[in-house]
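Chain and backbone:
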Amino acid sequence: ACLVGCNKAANDIPAVESVSISNKSALQADWYEGGADRVVELTFSPNDVSAENTEVKVVSNRPHIISVGADGRTLKAESAGTATITAVADDKQDSVLVTVKPVLKEVTITNKAELTSLWVQGDGERTVEVSLKPDAFTVENTGISVSSSNTGVIAVDGMKLSSLSLGTATITVTAGEYSDTAIIEVIALEN
């Protein structure tokens, strides 16, 4: 006979009828590479089954995208992509598809040689061309700004540059926290 305060034997724990990932919406919310870790929350049926008295395993089918920490519940966004996170208790399981979005890592002016070549005052427009990394980022889907350090020498309209007067200006392309520059000199046409 069990007296008050004695522990139930392991075989007194009821069988797992179901395991559910209870915070799927939170796990599926926008998540970016290197973002804050997330924790898988679980519920069980019947109610007297818990993570403390039942062996539960949380796994990622793509650990290079989302890894599961040593605690078996913490998820880490390793790289961009999609992974299925599955919780398994006995022969019951529940899964959620989680996406990690890429983060911008670089912006580069790809036509610096053309932009910095001999430019005579009033000699047409030049267009700034850029590449972004990773490739998921494009000029169309990324906020890119182009600025001139001296708008009296070189004016900027979107990605287009116009030479207005003699002098030098630094053109800066910015995307997120990244930038690249090109120093351009505008000269006079010699007779």
